[in-house]
Amino acid sequence: QVHLVESGGGLVQPGGSLNLSCAASGSIFSSYTVSWYRQVPGKQREFVAVITIGGGINYADSVKGRFTISRDNAKNTVYLRMNSLKPEDTAVYYCKARRLHIGVLLEYWGQGTQVTVSS
């Protein structure tokens, strides 16, 4: 079992930056692939970025070159550095931890943190 808590959201002006954190407890976080997703009301949750157990990284096209995902396994935390923020980045941001354990896919989600980009 993994408990995830996101933090770092808030209100920022266009062009600004935010650092989101996803802190985990309850299991060996280093054995999980961790992703960031975001969701706006009335729309499906969409993929933002992922970092694998081995450090492989991928981003949605809409955030490439502006967002950076990283992990610190010693702190059981994954980060999402967001630069050059745009109004369309406004959403609730969620982290997800996933691993395959004895043939069973385990997935855990955090409660989300609100990011609002507005002048």
Structure characterization notes:
By secondary structure, the protein is mainly β. Helix content is 0%, strand content 55%. It is built from no helices and eleven strands. The strands form two sheets. Strands 2, 4, 5, 6, 9, 10 and 11 form a seven-stranded mixed sheet that branches. A four-stranded antiparallel sheet has the order 1-3-8-7, with no helix packed on it. A hairpin with a 2-residue loop joins β9 and β10. It is globular and about 50 Å long.
Write out key terms for the chains shown.
7-stranded mixed β-sheet; 4-stranded antiparallel β-sheet; globular; 55% strand; mainly beta
Mean pLDDT: 95
Oligomer: single chain
Count of beta strands = 11
Low-confidence runs: none
Radius of gyration: 14 Å
| Biggest β-sheet description | 7 strands, mixed
What class, by secondary structure content?
mainly beta
β-sheet strand percentage: over 45%
Shape: globular
- Total helix count? 0
Q: Into which percent range does the helicity of residues fall? A: under 10%
Give me the strand/helix succession: EEEEEEEEEEE
**Distance, first to last CA:** 40 Å
Summarize, please.
The chain is mostly beta strands and 119 residues long. Helix content is 0%, strand content 55%.
Topology of this structure?
Elements: E1 3-7, E2 10-12, E3 18-25, E4 33-39, E5 46-51, E6 57-59, E7 67-72, E8 77-82, E9 91-101, E10 104-109, E11 113-117
Parallel strand pairs: 2-11
Antiparallel strand pairs: 1-3, 3-8, 4-5, 4-9, 5-6, 7-8, 9-10, 9-11
